[in-house]
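Q: What residues go here?
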């Protein structure tokens, strides 16, 4: 499940970042949790739209940098997978400055 989440977030970062953009992936060990960050310097997302990303009851969709379509269903599934593994997922983003998607999962004993 975690591998699928990482693939989806990286795929989205590619979709919403220009051809010469940058994507960084980092892992931080925070005692009992691992925190993964997928950061891009792409188009970014407004605060209003960020609130819609992980909600099944919103009808949010936007085009990628090459006109690719998206429905945010992948992000909703990512949220479900992370929460089923006792983790959390969130975003920090500003239009024109890129996005950082974070998630945590508990470390194995």
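A:
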């Amino acid at each position: 499940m975690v591998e699928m989440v990482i693939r989806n977030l990286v795929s989205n970062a590619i979709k919403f970042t220009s051809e010469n953009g940058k994507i960084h992936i980092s892992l931080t060990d925070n005692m009992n949790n691992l925190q993964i960050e997928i950061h891009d310097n792409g188009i970014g997302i407004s605060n209003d739209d960020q609130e819609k990303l992980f909600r099944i009851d919103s009808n949010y969709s936007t085009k990628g940098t090459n006109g690719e379509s998206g429905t945010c269903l992948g992000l909703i599934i990512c949220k479900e997978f992370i929460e089923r593994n006792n983790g959390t997922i969130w975003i920090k983003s500003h239009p024109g400055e890129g996005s950082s998607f974070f998630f945590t999962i508990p470390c194995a004993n």
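A: Context that may help when evaluating the design: The mean pLDDT is 89. Residues 2-15 form the longest helix (14 residues).
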